[in-house]
Amino acid sequence: MMATSGKDACGLNGEEPSVSLTSNNDKSLVNGATTEASALSKRQNGGGTGAERFAFSPEPTIEDIRRMQAQFTDERDWNQFHQPRNLLLAMVGEVGEVSELFQWRGEVAEGLPDWTEAEREHLAQELSDVLIYLVELAEKCRVDLPQAVLRKMALNRLKYPANKVHGSAKKYTEYKD
Predict the structure, then answer these.
(1) How far apart are CA 165 and CA 171, in angstroms?
(2) Cα distances (angstroms) measured from residue 13 to each of 9, 36, 171
(3) Which residue ranges does the record annotate as region Disordered (predicted)?
(4) In a 3-state reduction of DSSP, which class is residue 37?
């Protein structure tokens, strides 16, 4: 489990969240998320019909997450412990916790139709821990993740042209020109 509790990170210990998660002041906050986002939670945590393509909510952004975690860390004077190596090892530990949720289940269908809501929420929490550590690691290493993703996707398009690799799981080094 990550040291940052969802209650503290979202300002739910009787205080208002310090980072605005919405650009529309008409939306109310419930447990640190907009009611709109809360309504989508079940569908986005695997409770949807499966016929529609999954989509993340637009907020919070990666930058919002970075700011929330930076504030959380600063308030606790934990930057002294949050060096890149430590963050990486903590993130790997959290990935291990995600792995445990899938261990011994065999193949798991997209959307997790056989999982309970409690199991889905546990997965959501562990994946959140991984994301929070990833974002903080990127911050400490000065990697602008959204821009890095754009560059990496462009590189992947070159390495894996759709007309050449469609339907194949081979590594790019296995394709012949």
Answers:
(1) 9
(2) 9, 22, 48
(3) 1-30
(4) helix
